[in-house]
Amino acid sequence: MSSLVGPDEDVERGKPPVPEEVQAAIRTLIEWAGDDPTREGLLDTPKRVARAWKEYCLGYEEDPAVHLSRVFEEVGGYDEIVLLKDIPFQSHCEHHMAPIIGKAAIAYLPNDHVVGISKLARVLHGFARRLQIQERLTAEVAQCIQEHLKPQGVAVVIEASHACMTARGVRTPGVSMVTSRMMGIFREDERSRKEVLSLMGY
Ligand SMILES: [Zn+2]
């Protein structure tokens, strides 16, 4: 990945240069799919696709745990579940590199500190912007929060549809997959688990 090609105007517009090998790979894919990569409408497609993939995979450039480094100790005696739900996200399956589109619910029972609520969504996006399987995404989000926030428990439920299933293969639009990961009190105590799932709407 050494040769950086691309007209200077791209660099001027602040877009990252795309190595020639990467563009060539996408041209090969276009040809394999049955089209002609040299026709006008497809000329800039390799560069666009390459940049889009950098964006889909921005998660590789961050450690999602950084979003949990700033905590608030003053919780005003609050000792109940904190829940962020219906968080939309997009990821890509590692088997087909096809979109996974869905929403997540993330909850935790604080010990003595909390994080800014948007941080939970940032942790999710940090792991989602990689090649994933939904099961691992669910587990990674829960594990990261449990490890770095050290709450009494974490519950993560993800519901998503997989383009590799809805747009190809068995072609079943409307089907969604649900995965969950319970840790700490939500794993050990059935009442707490039921409570958090009911708050999430399950
Ligand atoms: Zn897939």
TrEMBL record:
Enzyme Commission (EC) number: 3.5.4.16
Origin: domain of life: Bacteria
Cellular component aspect of the GO annotation: cytoplasm
Xref: InterPro entries: GTP-CH-I_C/QueF, GTP-CH-I_N, GTP_CycHdrlase_I, GTP_CycHdrlase_I_CS, GTP_CycHdrlase_I_dom
Pfam families: GTP_cyclohydroI
Pathway stated in the Swiss-Prot or TrEMBL entry: Cofactor biosynthesis; 7,8-dihydroneopterin triphosphate biosynthesis; 7,8-dihydroneopterin triphosphate from GTP: step 1/1
Binding site for Zn(2+): C93, H96, C164
Quaternary structure and partners: Homopolymer. Toroid-shaped homodecamer, composed of two pentamers of five dimers.
Family: Belongs to the GTP cyclohydrolase I family.
HAMAP family to which the protein is assigned, alphabetical: FolE
UniProt-recorded name of the protein: GTP cyclohydrolase 1
Organism listed in the record: Parapontixanthobacter aurantiacus
Gene it is expressed from: folE
